[in-house]
Each structure stands twice: as C-alpha cells, then as structure tokens.
C-alpha cells in the first residue's frame, strides 16, 4: 500500500494514478511493438538530417536480431552496447530484446580498465561499439586480457545514418576499418527481411544490466527487469501527461538509466520521436530542439544550465519543450528561476536511482516544488504512484516528519538485485525496501528533500564517482604513498572530485602530473580536477583515513 495516497497533490492526479497502478505493459518489447502497430510511418528517431520511422527500426532490428542469433546469441545472453547517443543504440536494444537477450549499456567514456571490469562481470556474447572505441579501447583490452572480449563484435561510426557531420562534434573524424570486427550496417543489410526466432519475453526477464558502483568500489550490475522499466515508462507517460506522438529531446546519455527509461522508453510508449545528437553540446542541442520541436526532456541540471548560458541561446529554441524534468544532481532554486526567466519553462524536479529504474519521486506537472525554509533545498518531489517510500532513522524505525534519515524505497520499479552479487543484494534489497544510501527528510505534506549522501559517493554533474576507484588509480603512481578522494562543492557541477595525497620518502610529483596520471586512465568525469599534496593524511586511531575531515577542510590563510 502506498502510504501517501491521502496527500492533496495525489488526489489531483487520481486518473493518472489509476492508469499507472493498472499497467498496460509488462515488458519493453511490447511497448515498442505497440508503437510500430500504432505509428509505423512516424519517426522513431531523428539524428541530424536523417530520421528513421518505426517500421524501419523494426526491420533493421529484425535483421540485427537474426544476425545475432545466427552468431550464437541466445535467450538470457548479454549484448553490450558501447555507444554514444546514436540510432544504432535503439536498434541494438530492440534487436537484443527480440531474441530474449539482456542489454548491457556501457559508458562510452570508459577506458580499457573500466570496460574490462564490466565485460568480466557480465560476460556478453556480443559487443556493439563505435569503430573509434574498438581501436582505442577494445583492442587494447584484448591485447591485455583477450578472454574478456566477446568473439562477436560489430562496429559502427557516429557518422553513419546521418549526413550533416557537424564540425563541433565530428571535426577530424573519419570512418575506421576494424580488423577482427564486422561492420554493423553491412551485417544488418545482409540480413534485411529475415525474422529472428520467436522468443517470449517474461516480466521478470532482465531488460538491462546497468552498472553502478558498490561499497567496494567495484561495478555492480543492477538487474532492471522488463516489468521494472515498463512500469516506469508508464509513470513517465501518466505522471507527466505525455501525449501520443510527443517528441523527446535526448539530452541524457543513453547508457544511463535516465536515457534508457526517460528517453528511449518514454519516446516508444508515446510512439514519439527521440532526437539524438551523438553527444551533448549545448549549442547543437539548442539547434536540434529548435529544428525538431520536441515536447519533453529529462536532463541533469548542469546540461540545462549549459544550454541556458550558451551565448546563442534564445527563448524560441526551446519554445516547444514545455515539459522539462531534471534529476541526478541537486538543483539550486535560483537556477530554476533563471531558466524560467530565460525560456519560459519551469524545470520540475525528479528523483530516482539505477536500482529504481529511474523515478520514485517527481514534482507533478504544473506544480512547483517547495523550498525548505531552513536549508534552502528544493524538494526532489513526491512519491510517484506505486512507489512505497519512507525515511529510516538510524535504528531502522520510521523517522518522524521533518527528521533526516535514509530513503527506503519499494515498488514495481525497484530491481530484484545485483548481477552475481548475492551479498550486496541482501544488504541493499531488504524485506522492508531498498536502502538507497541517500539521506533526506519528508515534510508534513509528503514532499521529500535530499540533504546529504550517506555513502561517500561523489555526484559530479549527475555522474557518480566512487572515491576508492580514483584512489586505486592514484596508488599505481610510483610516487604516491597515501591517497584519499572526496567530493567538494562546485557551483556548476554540484560536486567536483578532489584528491589529497602524500608522497613516498624521496619521491617527487606535481599535482598536474598526478592529475594527468588519472586522466589518462579513467573516464573524463572521474579524474580529480583538484589535487593537493600534504605530508600526512588525517586518520583515526585505527589508521582509517578521515575523508570527512579532508572534505570539510578550508584553505589556510597565510
């Protein structure tokens, strides 16, 4: 039972609540097939000057699914998508589902060390990636650990399926020949018209294996089932009142749970078009919005701020984008007001995690989230229908109204656990709900306010960074003796990554050298932007480094 059903804001949405709690879909593939049946000749995706209709995506994904099956990919196998925001991400996802496979979205910023961890854990039967990523990352990983790389590799260029080749994104880019891999477009063309073997999809089948970070700093694959993601696709449609055919602006990366559910599935459930621009560039995104006139997006507030502050931004470019939601990082109330003044649209807050298949909380469309008078925090919203959410005090009991504690969530959007990690699953997925690790409080009207991170996870512009992972890389430098990584407040990114290190006796290294050491070995959002070298790191009597003391430290005045 949802304990917030008597809240006044929820009574306003009684019709929408009924539509969500009695879901029409229990798997993602059914959502796509219904869109094909309803709107076969309507665009499913826009990519610069080219568009693909739903029937064309259906044909191409049929061909790819047949090709994957021919190469031995079976029901329950994993298919990794190591791609930016391109149409082949959608085609690859649908093709995998058509043969009952699990989609493993991989951050295209990952380097070989990070990719290797994900491939070793998920053991995909096939990998679909950009030709440049194949050359720069996959081949290097294969040279070190060939057993981690699947035999079936299909490559594509970001220049495929489009004609514009915008110099801001593709300057100096050319198609690359990939020895040892097959060209994705050519494979699809050879199998065009073929149908994959009929494979049933069950609600509890895994749709996505989306990797997050756990308490050890090693990746954990959240098992987002078809029922999980189909339910939250319906939450987007009903709770935000997305009408049929609404266009979706693809600001969030598709490898992220927001892009997967809030972009791909939200577009499919409305039989609307998803506008993609390869990767985020504020100027390109503004132009795409003006050209394609989408009606909805959900994006990190830093992306919306970049669009707002772009020198060429005009109110007319986002005129059609009447429904804007933002999550992944705290939103300053002043930014919401500035955005509304610039574009005429209010940014609605939304909250969720990978383990909750996107939202458990959202600000109802047309309402303004309250601001807590004591902390100045903007509410992250109210629980969406079906989400049972409460605040746990330190002793595990429900915290009183207004008192902080850990957010605990349950409902049809919460994943059953982590891939191959029973201990971590048991720790997080308890009988009374999923322990989010986020500290918040609820006010008397049922609005939730996120006030702190229970864990040491750093949230840099919506990307989550685990400190120990950065520390492990720092420790590979021969001069580093001890290292600690913390998140510190950043006006633009929310948090930024700072490292504090001590050096071995007789060794020398500069902050710039150590930052570059990390930058060359990690995804761009993970490496430290700030680095300080000190003689001794603060520790407890047991020798544990005190990260909080480093986080709270202020520069000393001369």
Overview of the structural elements:
This protein is α/β, with parallel strands linked by helices and 558 residues long. Among the domains are: 29-201, 3-Layer(aba) Sandwich (Rossmann fold); 458-552, GMP Synthetase, Chain A, domain 3. 31% of the residues lie in helices and 24% in strands. The chain has 18 helices and 26 strands. The strands form seven sheets. A five-stranded parallel β-sheet has the order 4-3-5-6-7. Strands 12-13-14-15-16 form a five-stranded mixed β-sheet, sandwiched between helices. Strands 17, 18, 19, 20 and 21 form a five-stranded antiparallel β-sheet that branches. α4 packs across α5 and α4 packs across α9 (184-190).
Give the topology, please.
Blueprint: H1 8-11, H2 14-21, H3 28-38, E1 43-47, E2 50-53, H4 54-70, E3 78-82, H5 87-98, E4 102-105, H6 112-122, E5 126-130, H7 131-144, E6 152-156, H8 167-170, E7 182-183, H9 184-190, E8 206-213, E9 219-225, H10 226-239, E10 248-249, H11 257-269, E11 274-276, H12 282-292, E12 296-299, H13 301-308, E13 323-326, H14 333-343, E14 347-353, E15 358-362, E16 382-383, E17 388-392, E18 405-410, H15 422-428, E19 429-430, E20 433-442, E21 448-453, E22 458-460, E23 463-465, H16 467-474, E24 480-490, E25 494-503, H17 511-519, E26 530-533, H18 547-552
